[in-house]
Amino acid sequence: MGDDELKRAFQQLCGDYEELLDEAAQATQPLDERIGLALFKIDESCAAAELLRQDAQQTQEQLLTELLSNCHELEDIFLRVNLIERFAGRMLQTTRELEKRTENVSRAAGPVFNPSTSVTNLFRSFSMKVREEEVMQTFNAMPSKKTAPLANLETHHIFAKKKLPMDASWRNVPLVDAAGALTPEGTRFLEQDLADERLAVVTLLGPPSTRAARCELVANLLTQENSRPAPDDALALLATIEYVEEDFQVLVLDVNTPEGGAPSSDLDLLTGAVCALSSLVISCYDEIGSTPCLLPALPAFQTLFQTLVRDYATMEVYEILPKMLSIDFSPSRSLAEKLASAEKEGADSAVEALDTLSRFKTKGVFYPRTMARMRFDEFCGSHTAVKRLFGLEMTGEMLGSLLHILSLQALGQDPLDFGTAWDDYVEEKCRVLAEDALNTYVDCVHPSVFEQPPIELDAFTQLHEEIWRLSMDVYHSASKYKSTRHRTVRNKLKTDIRAQYGMELNTLKQKSREYCEELRQTLWTGLIAKTIYAHDGGTFAAMLAAIQEFDKQFNEKARGPEKAAVLREFYQHEAIQAFQRLENVVTRQLSESRLEELRLQLEKDFAAKKEALVEHFKQEEVHLRAGMAHDLETMQKMHEAKAARVKIDGSATKRLREELTTLKRQYTEQEEKAIVLEHAQQDSANRNGVLVTKVEELEIAVRREMTNRTELVDTLALTIKNAEEKEKALNGKIAELQLELGEKTFRVEGELQDLAQLLRKTNEEKEELQKKLNEFFLKVTALPETLQQHLFCLDNDGQVDFADVLTSYMS
């Protein structure tokens, strides 16, 4: 009976223990349900966040694709506008070239359309030459010395000129040595003493046998002493005459020509260039040298000007061509006859144009006795105008530079090219002007790069364009030379200014970046320090306020072209790092608060269950102790059973506790992931809003730019249309000018042929009159001396008792 009671008691104890386990399982079931529900919500939040992230990513990709397409369209628009601007620039350049051609055609046609200026002057000089030749031949044919005063009087009447105050100085400075190189004395005198003086050059040319006579002639014309020594140098500066009122100086040069006429040395090649740089060339003849030693038959002179006639316009060659006089020192006075016979010889077509121009520049032949009482201004003052080369007045510096360049050509055994020498001189002068213009640009633009705060890009570009125009105006205002090198140096100047602009722009960007980086570091350091001390959920608002304040202050204080780039780098680095740090802080705060709440709730539930279990176990312990007091064996078995149950209960509790710890850890991780995904979703939404705003701003900017570009294209189209209309009008004017030029040329050629026929008839009549005059004088010489005296007497009243004298003679 005792065993049955023990079995029943043990079964009852096992049932109670089973009920305790069921109650414990029922107590942990709500916690499992809550944990499962939390995990389900976490999975649902993760799925929603993933969908939002995918939608935001898809929207962002669409916006980026649309932005990229808009950028490509804008780039195409810019390319088309650049092509239109380039076409408009070419049209403008073509229009300018056409205007220059029209101006050149008008300048070339001016002398024909205005015969009162150049053509009339040519006719007048031609008629003066004919009159001089008639007077000289008439009085040279008279053998009596009593006719000399009358000849001097007539010549003085022809070459009379208003006397101007002048200061003559005898120099005797060698300009070129025997090798054809410029001497240091001559270079120093031309480039220092006469650097900016306006010059007229008178060159005495002839064989070495006339050197002494040439020096004596210059000394007599300048009323200097006749004992001046003749220079030994091949090219020497004899004297200078300064006209104070006219503000120019006359250089009197002396040059020896080769005996045979053909150039045999570098100096002989340089002789033609010296003649081309002269205002008046006086050729001296003494029968020892040949006529090719004189102008215009000098071979070096012919070669040089044939090149000029082939390469340049006729009016420009006519301007360079010097006036030519000849002085006959020979006792037989045969120069005029030789020149006349040389003119009658047929000339080939290569020199026909040069001979035509030379005839207009030739002023006749003089003889020493006709110049015995003349002053310098009476003899050649009317022919010594300031020398002009391609529209510019010659100065001492120009003369020295051209002689130096031409002497280098002669030393190089190359044929002299006056056009190339002029181009080299123009290039040298334009290079100096271009350097001044470039220095002007650098002096004006370079200081603005180092200003603090840096200058804005628009202001710098505007400054560059203004100084560009100023530099080009400086170059164009000082450069008035007619040469293709002018445009070459101008293009080189533009290239140098563009390169300098690129260097200055890079320096400005570097200075702007340094300034903006320093400002960015200073502002952000001060603002981010204030957000560190923000608590109680104000960290995010403080961070946004700090970024907005930074953006405001940076836009107000930052300057220079790199302002936007530095601000963009700030948003790419500091702003992102700040938000990441803010995200970590918020995540950490949220995780700690939730974990604290869960820990407190779990501790509270665990304490309540623990108290209930302790109370229940105390009651059971009382019942068990009361039952076990009856029988030690039963108690021992009960203790063994209890020990076994305690072991089972400990292992199950331990297992449940481990499972609970694992679930808590998983729940914490899932909550952290849910918070991270929630913040990622919020960031995606913010970024999406920012991108939408930027896209709208870009679309507005693109529309505005397209409107401006459309207006610019319309303006360019209107400008191109106006330029085409102007070009058509100019082409019509050019055609009319060419037609009128042809008519005027044909009329002038007919008048010249008529004048030539009239001159030929006049010469024939003059020869007949000369023959009759010679016969008359032959008959007069057969008369007695008394009758001759009555015939040539100038003091009587014109009544000659010719019959009485003849009667007395016959008787």
**Count of runs of 4 or more consecutive helical residues:** 21
Main-sheet strand order equals 1-3-4-2-5-6-7
CATH superfamily of the domain at 167-411: P-loop containing nucleotide triphosphate hydrolases
What is the overall silhouette?
rod-shaped
CATH level 1 name of the domain at 167-411: Alpha Beta
Q: Main β-sheet, in a few words?
A: 7 strands, mixed
**Amino-to-carboxy terminus distance:** 230 Å
Q: What is the name of the CATH topology of the domain at 167-411?
A: Rossmann fold
What does this molecule look like?
This protein has 811 residues and is of the alpha/beta class. Among the domains are: 12-102; 167-411, Rossmann fold, CATH 3.40.50.300; 417-536, no CATH class; 537-611. Helices cover 73% and strands 7% of the residues. The strands form two sheets. Strands 1-3-4-2-5-6-7 form a seven-stranded mixed β-sheet, with helices on both faces.
